[in-house]
Amino acid sequence: MFETTFGQNDAQTVAVAAPGRVNLIGEHTDYNDGFVLPLALQKNTVLVGAKAAEGSTIVRLVSEMSPEDVAQFDLSKPDELKPGGEPEWANYVKGMVVMFQRQGYAVPGFDAAVSSDVPTGGGVSSSAALEMATGTLLEVFADITLEPSTKAKWGQSVEHEFVNLPCGIMDQLISAAGQEGHAMMLDCRSFEIKPVPLDDPSVKIVVANSMVKHSLSGSEYPERRAQCYAAAKALGVPHLRDATMKMLDALPEGTLDQKTYMRARHVITENDRVVRFAQALQERDYIKAGLLMNDSHTSQRDDYEVSVPEIDHLVRIAQSVEGVYGARLTGGGFGGCTVTLCQENAVPALFEAFKKEYEPTIGKEALVFDTEAGPGARVLKL
Ligand code: GAF
Questions:
Q1: Could you list the active site residues?
Q2: What is the pLDDT of residues 56-82, one digit of tens each?
Q3: CATH-assigned architecture of domain 1-197+375-380
Q4: Where does the record place the GHMP kinase C-terminal domain (predicted)?
Q5: How far apart are the C-alpha atoms of 303 and 298, rounded to whole Å?
Q6: Distance 109 CA to ligand 1 centre (A)
Q7: How many angstroms does the Cα of residue 165 sit away from the middle of ligand 1?
């Protein structure tokens, strides 16, 4: 696609990739300075790019999703670097360009072609994958290597400024720092990254996409975030990461409204579940890990209220299959995907159950795939 669109030959190009993610546990804890435990998918966004002719300030972008539309902006025109404009996906690239410039790195004019097998709008972080792939391409152009957490923070700023989504750091950080064969325990306060082995051939991770598209930039996500911050303020702590259930339950009656109390209870208990889950995974105690995933789902559904009937149905289907340890909603919610931890030999029955029981009730098929933990953002070809 690069060559047909831009006419430059292959020898001049750089290729980079960055993965989507699935989160095993730790939902809505990242913007509360807490812990998360995602893994990088083996599904990636790939950018093939090349610098434009010396002195050019033009960036041209094309995506395999609509190869006839070439997006273009001029690096020397501040107006063209503002958020907005079509196609929407180009904002993630433009945003990363602006972050590099803001930090004083020279960004040359360039051409780039995007292709991806990360499902879009499906709760597996296709946007973070595009941001981290762009960041990796720009690192090559600038001849620098950034800390994964730095690149991730810039990607998070792109979400805040260019897409109006006040997200946490999880999606960008796992896309930047994922490691093959490992789930990654991420401390969203210190940015400490602890790989937890996930290479036991007797267990599998299965992702089921409800095919219900969600848009997190609606009011729900910011509202949840605001409720968490209000609860932390009432508790007198910087973030809910610093609170315990004992503290929450010691608040005088009426300090928090019921919903805010429920949001805080989800975050406090979820944070604790991440720590216990990581321990269980280390010990290969999948029964314990699975139960924690089930509890996490219940908490997301009942306390955080981010699930939807389609997702609850997928979770129930998974939990009823023999050999399944646990299942839950993964990602921001309001649709998207579930994640299931199961015995390797339960995978066929699980796929079958999703097929037989989802579509007849919901009216559309779920897109189901199993995955191992893949690598984070990387250069494929220089
Ligand atoms: C979305 C956000 F982008 C993440 O930062 C995180 O908050 C997640 O929802 C919920 O855990 O993916």
A1: 171
A2: 999 999 999 888 889 999 999 999 999
A3: 2-Layer Sandwich (3.30)
A4: 278-359
A5: 8
A6: 32
A7: 10
pTM of the model: 0.97
How far does residue 229's CA lie from ligand 1's centre (Å)? 16
For the CA atoms of the chain, what is the radius of gyration?
Answer: 21
Domain residues of the chain, as ranges? 1-197+375-380, 203-371
ipTM above 0.95, yes or no: yes
Q: What is the pLDDT at residue 232?
A: 98
Strands 182-187 and 193-197: antiparallel
Backbone phi and psi for residue 266, each to the nearest 5 degrees, phi listed first? -60, -50
Which ligand 1 atom is at minimum distance from the Cα of 332? 9
Give the pair of three-digit tokens for residue 104: 């004083």
Domain 203-371 class in CATH: alpha beta
Output the ligand 1 site: residues, CB below 6 A. 27-28, 30-31, 167-168, 170-171, 216, 331-332
Per-residue model confidence as pLDDT tens digits over 90-128: 999 999 999 999 999 989 999 999 999 998 877 899 999
Write down how long the chain is: 382
